[in-house]
TrEMBL record:
This is SulP family inorganic anion transporter. The keyword Kinase does not apply. Pfam families: STAS, Sulfate_transp. It is found in: Membrane. Keywords: Membrane, Transmembrane, Transmembrane helix. It comes from the Bacteria. PANTHER family: SULFATE TRANSPORTER. Its main location: membrane. It is a multi-pass membrane protein. The keyword Plastid does not apply.
Length: 578
């Protein structure tokens, strides 16, 4: 029989395997006309969904509707061309509305474009450093909390358009200032705008319930535009607010760049990068769960980075993978990334042919679209489940939600991740335990099946104490375990510590054992470590925990037998009375 050994080095994928775009993979598999036809139909379906949504998200972000379309056309094309997911659809996302709006308010449109380009380079760096794998470690309560917070913040920003409020000056950004401001100007609402908003929301909900496969958003936006034009409703439209949208793509251009500007927008770019990586990879995971495929996370981040750079050069805003459009792409029968590229082509045809029609679209109906999107973003069942699951998960969830609403998204993710990590450490430390004065059980017998040559009375001898550690011996549990292990009575001459149930030891755990061994050596107490795996033994040896400081044995039984050999008195028969 031939034994084959595979090392971790040989199993590690090559650079080409990690960063080959899924488009290349699909073409290598064999791409037929039937596949192309499926991708064209899926791309058209997603374009119909993306058309009103891209404009609505851009307007909600204090950008122009044209910028939203540029983002979907240019950014979406490069996400599909270079990304690591077969079905990912790129474009502007609702999760970015808060960040983009704040960036525009602080640094203007040029600052937004510069931050988008910088974020693109950062995403590429994260991908090439192979850090995309670690995005999955964001705790679930954090994602649910900041998603709910984003949804509430977006909705608060759309109240002005939903009610048609009129005021002079700029609407405040922070929620604590925005709510009193909107309440103060609530009497200025427009009845026609409010009626159109309510009717649009009702129509969107009814269409989703009755005809879920129909492009409800596009239908409602088109009907609202027709009603507004025919009845000459006194409501704000894309035409009155923005003068319509251009009928072609702009030429690529760099924004004004200076060292001061770079320093000013860098925090915004970091926020774009962090949220973009999370959103994109979560969307790719959703596509994987729907199709059984597997995306390349680091390649996806590199593709997202290039897409953001190109979007910024063409005047667009932040690009990321979008869950709703990606799921629509999968359900529409897409075969591969060409569907995403075709979605961009169809949107480009729209602005080339039908751009003047966009001038009639009311801002109220686009605000209604975002209101429905916000409702769908809040995962209500998951939110309720986490509140009931445990006090720790509820605390992480509510803290992330509160910080998102009242401080900012970046702080919310950082604090939520920190709280989630502390909660995990606490739970892991509770699973690590130490047992004392163990009876010798069957699993402690040597591997060769022999019973050994020791006297079982030695286990009851007060000069020998036996401990077994179970669970991960890491910094979170080291203090409590160390306190137990160091309770060596004056009469103990030998200490046996069993590591059979320890999967790994970190440097803090190893340091705890080293301190224990040196303290025991100073008191002439022998320390025996049993059941150490290769990894645990390697970590302990790196900290100097090796003979003669300690004795190593495969099992407790072997350790006791060795103690008997070293100290024959323990093996002597017990004296009889009389």
């Amino acid at each position: 029989m031939t034994t084959q050994t595979f090392s971790s080095q040989s199993a590690r994928p090559s650079f080409a395997e990690l960063y080959t775009p899924k488009l290349v993979t699909v073409l290598r598999e064999g791409y037929t006309f039937g596949h192309f036809r499926a991708d064209v139909m899926a791309g058209l379906t997603v374009a119909i969904v993306a058309l009103p949504l891209s404009m609505a998200i851009a307007i909600g972000s204090n950008a122009s509707p044209a910028q939203g379309l540029y983002t979907s056309i240019v950014g979406g094309f490069f996400v599909s061309l270079l990304g690591g997911s077969r079905f990912q659809m790129g474009g502007p996302a609702g999760a970015f509305i808060v960040l983009v709006a704040a960036t525009v308010q602080q640094h203007g449109t040029d600052g937004l474009i510069l931050a988008t380009i910088i974020a693109g380079f950062m995403l590429m760096a994260i991908g090439y450093l192979r850090l995309g794998t670690y995005i999955k470690f964001i705790p679930y309560p954090v994602t649910i909390g900041f998603t709910a917070g984003i949804a509430l913040t977006i909705f608060s920003g759309e109240i002005t358009h939903l009610f048609g409020l009129s005021f002079s000056g700029t609407e405040p950004g922070p929620l604590t200032q925005k709510i009193p401001f909107l309440w103060e100007h609530l009497p200025t609402f427009s009845p026609a705008t409010l009626a159109l908003s309510v009717a649009s929301i009702v129509a969107l909900v009814v269409l989703r319930m009755v005809r879920p496969r129909w492009p409800g958003m596009l239908i409602v936006v088109a009907l609202a535009a027709v009603v507004t034009a025919v009845l000459k409703l006194p409501v704000e439209t894309i035409g009155t607010q923005f003068g319509g949208i251009p009928r072609s793509l702009p030429l690529p251009a760099l924004p004004a760049v200076s060292l001061e500007k770079l320093q000013a927008v860098l925090p915004n770019a970091v926020s774009f990068t962090l949220l973009g990586a999370i959103e994109s990879l979560l969307s790719a995971v959703v596509a994987d769960s729907m199709t059984g495929r597997r995306h390349r996370s680091n390649c996806e981040l590199v593709g997202q980075g290039v897409a953001n750079i190109m979007s910024g050069l063409f005047g667009g805003i932040c690009v990321t993978g979008t869950v709703a459009r990606t799921a629509t792409n999968v359900r529409a029968g897409a075969h591969g990334p060409i569907s995403g590229m075709m979605h961009s082509v169809f949107l480009l045809l729209f602005i080339l042919v039908a751009a003047p029609l966009a001038s009639y679209i009311p801002l109220a109906v686009l605000a209604a679209v975002l209101a429905v999107v916000c409702w769908n973003m809040v995962e209500r069942h998951a939110f309720a489940t986490l509140l009931k699951a445990s006090h720790g998960d509820a605390a992480v969830l509510l803290a992330t939600l509160g910080i998102t609403l009242f401080r900012g998204l970046t702080e919310a993710i950082i604090v939520g991740f920190a709280l989630g990590s502390v909660l995990f450490i606490h739970r892991m430390s509770q699973t690590t335990a130490v047992e004392a004065n163990l009876p010798l059980v069957g699993e402690d017998t040597p591997d060769d099946g022999s019973r050994g040559s020791y006297d079982e009375r030695a286990q009851q001898d007060p000069s020998v104490v036996v401990y077994r550690i179970s669970g991960a011996f890491f910094f979170g549990a080291a203090s409590s375990i160390g306190a137990v292990l160091e309770r060596i009575g004056e009469g103990h001459r030998n200490l046996v510590v069993d590591f059979t149930a320890v999967p790994f030891v970190d440097s803090t755990g190893a340091q705890t054992i080293e301190n224990l061994a040196r303290k025991a050596a100073g008191r002439n107490v022998g320390v025996y470590l049993t059941g150490t795996s290769a990894n645990v033994k390697r970590e302990l040896a790196a900290h100097g925990i090796r003979p003669p400081l300690v004795h190593l044995a495969p099992t407790i039984e072997r350790a006791l037998a060795e103690i008997h050999k070293r100290e024959p008195a323990l093996a002597a028969p017990a004296p009889t009375e009389g």
